[in-house]
Amino acid sequence: MQREQPLQACAVSADPSDPLAQREHPEPPHSYRSPFERDRARVIHARSFRRLAGKTQVFTLGATTLPNTDGTGSAASGFSDHFRSRLTHTMEVAQIARTIAVTLGLEQNLVEALALVHDIGHPPFGHAGERALDEALRAHGLRFDHNLHALRIVEHFEQRYAGFRGLNLTLGVREGIIKHSNDYTAAEHPELAAYLLDRQPPLEAQIIDLADEIAYLTADLDDGMESGLLDVASMRAHLGLFERFYAPMAAEHAGAAEKLIFNEALKRMLNALAGDLIATTCTAAATQGIRSLEAVRAAPRRLAAFSPAVEAQRLEAKRYLYDHLYSSEKLERDHQMAADVIEALFTAWVAEPSLLPANYAARVEIEGAPRVVADYLAGMTDSFILAQFADWRSSRRL
Ligand code: MG
Q1: How far apart (Å, rounded) are the C-alpha atoms in residues 86 and 219?
Q2: Which CATH code of 1.10.10.10, 1.20.1560.10, 1.10.3210.10, 3.30.530.80 fits the domain covering 31-397?
Q3: Which residues contact 24 (CB under 8 A, 6 or more apart)?
Q4: CA 111 to CA 128: how far, in whole Å?
Q5: Residues with Cβ < 8 Å from 195, sequence gap 6 or more?
Q6: Cα of 177 to ligand 1 centre, how many Å?
Q7: Distance, CA 118 to ligand 1 centroid (Å)?
Q8: Using CA atoms, how far apart are residues 182 and 189, in angstroms rounded to an integer?
Q9: Ion ligand 1 — residues with CB under 5 Å?
Q10: Distance of CA 6 to the CA centre of its chain
C-alpha cells in the first residue's frame, strides 16, 4: 500500500552533499549507507549510549538495596525489574518518533538518530541527578544542561576515531541535539552560533520532544501502576484522556483483569496522542502554506504540536504525574539520596581534583574543577556512582 506522506516536501535531505549532512571532519560518502544511517549507528555504538541502561528514568533500578546516605536502612522506592531505564525509555521514544516520521514522510534515519541520542546527556538518578548537578555548578557560576552536555559528549568525550575526538556526527544531528527541546539564544550561548539559533529546527527535530512527552507520560503511568504508587481509580478520576479510553475498554472487557484493561486504555491513549500530533502538525503546515524545509525554518514558531484540546489533557497528565508520582514520598526519598550522593562527591572532588581519573584530572587546569567533576559525575550510571560514593565514605570512615 502506498501511503500518502503529507510533509515529505518539508523533509531534510539525506543526500551526502546536503549542508545538514556535513561533518566537522569531512568523510567520503559511504557506499550504501546514508549520512543519517551512519549517525544512528554511531550513537548506538557509543559508550555513553550503553550506559543509559544503568541510568534512572523515574525509578532507580534495584532501589531496595540502596543505603540511606546516613548509613541507616534502605532508600527503597519499591522494586520491580519491569521499570523503564533511560535506555528502554529512549527506545520507546525512537519507536514513537519513527512512526510519526514515516507517517509524515520525514527523514526517518535522522529522526531515529535524534531519538536515540536525545537523553545521552542525562546524569545518573534522572531529573533529581540533573537538578543536583545544576545546583552544585551554580555555586561556581556554571550550569548543568543535559542537551548541552549531550553535545559535549558527541563532540569531545566519545573517542572512536584515531584522527579526532568525538563521533563526528552530521550538522543535522548536532543541531537536533541542541534544538529538540529548547530554544537557546545566540546572546546567551555564543558557542552555539553554528547551529542556526535564529531559525526553527527541521520537523525531524521538532517531533522528538513531543514523542518524548508521549513516551514518558504513558510509560510513567505504567511504571507508576507497577510500583503501586498509582492506581486505576485515581487515574480515572484525574485524567480525562485516560478515562476516555478506560471506560469503553472496561465495558467491552467486563470481568477482565484490571491491569489488562489498563493496558488496553494506555495503548489507545498513546495512539491518540501520536495521531493528534500527526494531524495537528499537518494542519498547521497546510494552513500556513508550508511546503519546504526552508519554510519550516522560517516559520514564526514550531509547527509540530498537539491540538489545544489534547495539549490541555497532556498538561493535566503531566501535572497528575508530578503530584501523585514524582513528588510522592517514596520517590522523594530517592531524590534526596541522589542529591546527597552527588553533592558529597562533587564537593569532595572539587576540593581534591587529584582524586579524579587521570584523563579528567588533566582537564582541570583548562576547564576548572567544577566543570570537569560535573562531566565525570554526569557520565556515571546509578550503580557506578553509588560504588564511588561507598568508596568515598569508607575512605573517610563515615
Ligand atoms: Mg527523554
Answers
A1: 12
A2: 1.10.3210.10
A3: 155, 164, 166, 168
A4: 28
A5: 174, 175, 178, 179
A6: 12
A7: 6
A8: 12
A9: 119, 212
A10: 27
Q: How far is the CA of 90 from the centre of ligand 1 (A)?
A: 6
**How far lies 150's CA from each of 109, 270, 295, 359, in Å?**
19, 27, 28, 19
Give 80 Cα–ligand 1 centroid separation in angstroms: 20
Q: Is 128 helix (H, G, I), strand (E, B) or coil?
A: helix
Q: Ligand 1 centre and the CA of 253: distance in Å?
A: 33
Which residue blocks in 56-138 are alpha helix, DSSP H? 86-104, 108-117, 126-138
- Looking up cell 486504555, which residue turns up? 265
Give the Å distance between the CA of 241 and the centre of ligand 1: 21
Question: Measured in angstroms, how far is the CA atom of residue 377 from the centroid of ligand 1?
Answer: 19
For residue 250, what are the contacts with CB-CB under 8 A and spacing of at least 6? Answer: 261
Place of cell 520537523: 203
- State if pTM tops 0.90: yes
Q: How far is the CA of 74 from the centre of ligand 1 (A)?
A: 28
Nearest partner of 225 among 335, 80, 89, judged by Cα: 80
Dist CA 70 CA 341 (whole Å)? 11
Per-residue pLDDT of the chain (398 residues; tens, 9 = 90+): 567 889 999 999 999 999 999 999 999 999 999 999 999 999 999 999 999 999 988 888 654 444 445 544 444 445 677 889 999 999 999 999 999 999 999 999 999 999 999 999 999 999 999 999 999 999 999 999 999 999 999 999 999 999 999 999 999 999 999 987 777 888 888 888 888 888 999 999 999 999 999 999 999 999 999 999 999 999 999 999 999 999 999 999 999 999 999 999 999 999 999 999 999 999 999 999 999 999 999 999 999 999 999 999 999 999 999 999 999 998 999 899 999 999 999 999 999 999 999 999 999 999 999 999 999 999 999 999 999 999 999 987 55
